[in-house]
Specification:
The complex is a heterodimer.
Chain A (H helix, E strand, L loop, with lengths): L14 E4 L8 H16 L12 E4 L6 E6 L10 H10 L1 H7 L7 E4 L15 H48 L2 E2 L2 E2 L12 H9 L4
Antiparallel strand pairs in A: 1-3, 1-4, 2-3, 5-6
Chain B lengths: L10 H12 L2 H5 L1 H7 L6 H26 L3 H8 L4 H30 L22 H5 L2 H10 L14 H18 L3 H27 L4 H9 L9 H14 L6 H7 L7 H50 L11 H11 L1 H7 L8 H6 L5 H13 L4 H33 L1 H6 L2 H16 L7 H11 L2 H32 L5 H29 L9 H4 L41 H9 L39
Classes of the chains: A alpha+beta, B mainly alpha.
GO cellular component, one term (chain B): apical plasma membrane
GO biological process, one term (chain B): L-proline import across plasma membrane
Main location (chain B): membrane
Chain lengths: 205, 633
């Protein structure tokens, strides 16, 4: 039951309508209503002397909708609708609460209710969540890229290191099948003692 | 040093990759629509027939080619015949276009996902107007979900000519979407292989949760009964068969080169016949499963709207005639209306124009597909569920998984041939190649974040891939069977996998499937030519303020809810849009000449209509029957 109908009634005075199901409406409730309207009018400067008896209800229907007017103290004429409307608008909340109703279930025709705006946080929530997820994804991407670069470098260093050691060995040791050859060559010649005695046999002249 | 080709760690990764690629958004938002349009339960008949006759053979063909040639699409077709490398290039180009616009959907899904963490959900309430006495007019006339989609998400301009500026919010989401895709394809099969476990399995978890939730919703049975009631006369409608064939074709993602790319990372001895059958069956079952979920949600939404429509009528009558509260109920509404009409004829005739005829049937009949389904209808249903934030998060998370899963396949279709090419891979490491591709696509994708971006999106979606793919797959089939030689391929394949080719596949590849594709091709070509000037649907907020009355007989395209459907424009010259790149051959020039936007006919459905589907065929002549009611708010 949440739609505000904006029908324009024939009479220029405010009309009140209660739309909750089976609201127990009796004369006491009427009295309370009159009291609330009088209270609202009393809040207006110049109208502090409004009494409950100045508020008149008429055409009460089973729908619980009726017309009401507020007369001035001398009971000569009714107050202008605009004044009554603005007074009620100021105290709408109190009136609603007195009947345990809300703007949707207690409607004053031609008094549009001021809707409560949604509170917008200073930083929209979605940006916060976006920021969090964006950072996570960015960090994960960076990590993957960096580890990829590191792997790449390690792979590049690996085979090139192998090649360097091979070159070095060739200058020093001939490598056959990966096994260094006999280090005899390295020393540039050995004197085999077994054959040295030849010189000593021949006596010097 | 010879680099060995990276392989999937297990065959399961390959199957999951194919599933996650094939099961995409089209299963969720295109198939339920088709089911509804073409006779409910009886649509399953042409669907299954086409699956067996067209889907499985062509899927097996692509997987077999990829696994045998062990290269991306360009290299594979070059091996078949050096004159045919153009087929591979065409596949890569189409994939490139698809990537560019497809990721925008993921961006939108991200946007909705981030907005799901608020209470109340931002699309469930209209924002207030300036003096806080009511709601913003555009939102009031349409619905809050539509307002959020068109105004807050897209900030759509009234026509495609007014491009507007790049919207920074969707642009940020697009950047994030591309970053996520890059993260997943960065390392090739090593990273993709891990991600597909999630993108293939998690959507099913969410779908099951939604199935349980959907079936327990009030009014779900209405939707299900409506959908599954077979209308056998639709079997005689050739459009049903054509749409079934098209849906199978595009749903499996044939012709993009993604399947070839995925299969090229297989072990040579992999049994791809079994995998082809499994993937195609799972893809189709997922479509049916998703349509059960969708229709229970439809039923809920339709019932909810119907009941709130009834309540509004009751309220209106109660207020107008000052009836007692509780007197009017849904049951006695008709009798009381008759009574009031006879008892207070003058007053009744005053009130009568405002009384809407509430009908559950008409609510159910609103067939929607595409982004309209995902981002408007579903969100409308979700906002009425309890704990709507949870359902919203789950739903958009699932959309993201499906979308990212398909994107992995699409990017693989582009990256695999690039990385296979020795020229490029010798200069750049694979991370750099992926990065460059993602960056280029992201930059071009910014077009879709402009104010007119969603119209461009529509164009791409309708025309970027449809005819091209049919042609590509046709050439592929003919090339393999007749240029390369079916017997030669069979013997090589047998040597590789150890299994002989069943006669069924040979018959299909050689005869039935090419014929089917040729007939589809001819149908769409003739449809294009016959349709003449093409049209698109626009959302024009400026028209909203012009609506004061409630008469449907007002100027064309204005409806009671005020959501403007049609573009009230005159003939405009075609946007100078580089469709030259879209297709090769004469089709390109044909399209440039044909693309106009035209004044809509007055008898076109007055409510807003928005259709989208990846791999959808343009059916402009049918658009008048595809109406989405702009919410009964």
């Amino acid at each position: 039951m949440a739609q505000l109908l904006k029908q324009a009634p024939a009479a220029p005075h405010p009309k009140s309508r209660n739309r909750v199901g089976k609201y127990a409406w009796d004369t006491n409730e009427e009295y309370l209503f009159k009291a609330m309207v009088a209270f609202s009018m009393r809040k207006v400067p110049n109208r502090e002397t409004t009494e409950i008896s100045h508020v008149l209800l008429c055409n009460v229907t089973q729908r619980v909708s009726f017309w009401f007017v507020v007369t001035d103290p001398s009971r000569n004429h009714t107050l202008p609708a605009v004044e009554v409307q603005s007074a009620i608008r100021m105290n709408r909340n109190r009136i609603n609460n007195a009947f345990f109703l809300n703007d949707q279930t207690l409607e004053f025709l031609r008094i549009p209710s001021t809707l409560a705006p949604l509170t917008d946080p200073s930083v929209p929530i979605w940006i916060i969540i976006f920021g969090v997820i964006f950072c996570i994804v960015l960090v994960a991407t960076m990590l993957l890229i960096l580890s990829g670069i590191r792997q790449h470098r390690r792979k590049n260093k690996g085979p090139s290191e192998m090649e360097d050691t091979e070159d070095k060995c060739e200058n020093v040791i001939t490598i056959e099948n990966g096994i260094p050859c006999d280090p005899l060559d390295m020393k540039g010649g050995h004197i085999n003692d077994a054959f040295v005695t030849e010189d000593e046999r021949l006596t010097p002249l | 040093m010879e680099k060995t080709r990276p392989l999937w760690t297990t065959p399961l990764q390959f199957v999951f990759a194919c599933i996650s690629y094939a099961v995409g958004l089209g299963n969720v938002w295109r198939f339920p629509y088709l089911c509804q349009m073409y006779g409910g339960g009886s649509f399953l008949v042409p669907y299954v027939v086409m699956l067996v006759v067209e889907g499985m053979p062509l899927l097996y063909l692509e997987l077999a080619v990829g696994q045998h040639m062990r290269q991306g699409s360009i290299g594979a077709w070059r091996t078949v015949s050096p004159y045919l490398s153009g087929v591979g290039v065409a596949s890569v180009l189409v994939s490139f276009f698809l990537c560019t616009y497809y990721n925008v959907i993921n961006a939108w899904a991200f946007w909705y996902l981030f907005h799901s963490f608020q209470d109340p959900l931002p699309w469930s309430v209209c924002p207030l107007n300036g003096n806080r006495t009511g709601y913003v007019e555009e939102c009031e006339k349409a619905s809050s979900t539509q307002y959020f989609w068109y105004r807050k998400t897209l900030n759509i301009s009234p026509s495609i000519q007014e491009s507007g500026a790049v919207q920074w919010e969707p642009a940020l989401c697009l950047v994030l979407a591309w970053l996520v895709v890059y993260l997943c394809v960065l390392r090739g099969t090593a990273s993709t292989g891990k991600v597909v476990y999630f993108t293939a399995l998690l959507p099913y978890c969410v779908l099951i949760i939604y199935l349980v939730r959907g079936l327990t919703l009030h009014g779900a049975t209405n939707g299900l009964a409506y959908m599954f009631t077979p209308k056998m006369e639709q079997l005689a409608n050739p459009k049903a068969w054509i749409n079934a064939a098209t849906q199978i074709f595009f749903s499996l993602g044939l012709g993009f080169g993604s399947l070839i790319a995925f299969a090229s990372y297989n072990e040579p001895s992999n049994n791809c016949q079994k995998h082809a059958i499994i993937v195609s069956i799972i893809n189709s079952s997922t479509s049916i499963f998703a349509s059960i979920v969708t229709f229970s949600i439809y039923g809920f939404k339709a019932t909810f709207n119907y009941e709130s429509c009834l309540n509004k009528v009751i309220l209106l009558l109660t207020n107008s005639f000052d009836l007692e509260d509780g007197f009017l109920t849904a049951n006695n509404l008709e009798q009381v209306k008759d009574y009031l009409a006879s008892a207070y004829p003058s007053k009744y005739s005053e009130v009568f124009p405002q009384i809407r005829n509430c009908s559950l049937e008409s609510e159910l009949e609103t067939a929607v597909q595409g982004t309209g389904l995902a981002f408007i209808v579903y969100t409308e249903a979700i906002k009425n569920m309890e704990v709507s934030q949870l359902w919203s998060v789950l739903y958009f998370f699932m959309l993201l998984l499906l979308g990212v899963g398909s994107m992995l396949g699409n990017t693989a279709a582009i990256l695999t041939p690039l990385m296979d090419s020795k020229l490029i891979s010798s200069y750049l490491p694979k991370e750099a190649i992926s990065g460059l591709v993602c960056l280029t696509n992201c930059a071009i994708g910014m077009v879709f974040t402009m104010e007119a971006g969603s119209y461009w999106f529509d164009i791409f979606n309708d025309y970027a891939a449809t005819l091209s793919l049919l042609l590509i797959v046709l050439v592929e089939t003919v090339a393999l069977c007749y240029v390369y030689g079916l017997s030669r391929f069979e013997s090589e394949f047998k040597a590789m996998t150890g299994r002989a080719l069943n006669w069924y596949w040979k018959v299909m590849w050689g005869g039935v499937s090419p014929l089917l594709i040729i007939s589809l091709f001819i149908f769409y070509l003739s449809d294009y030519i016959i349709t003449g000037t093409l049209q698109y649907q626009a959302w024009d907020a400026a028209q909203v303020s012009a609506v004061s009355g409630v008469s449907l007989s007002e100027t064309k395209c204005l409806s009671r809810t005020g959501a403007v459907v049609c573009h009230n424009g005159n003939h405009h010259p075609a946007p100078c849009f580089p469709q030259l790149l879209l297709e090769y051959g004469c089709l390109t020039m044909l399209r440039l000449l044909l693309l106009r936007h035209r004044v809509n006919q007055p008898d076109l459905c007055p409510f807003f209509f928005y259709t989208f589907s990846p791999f959808r065929s343009p059916q402009s002549s049918e658009q008048s029957s595809l109406c989405y009611r702009a919410g009964s708010h």
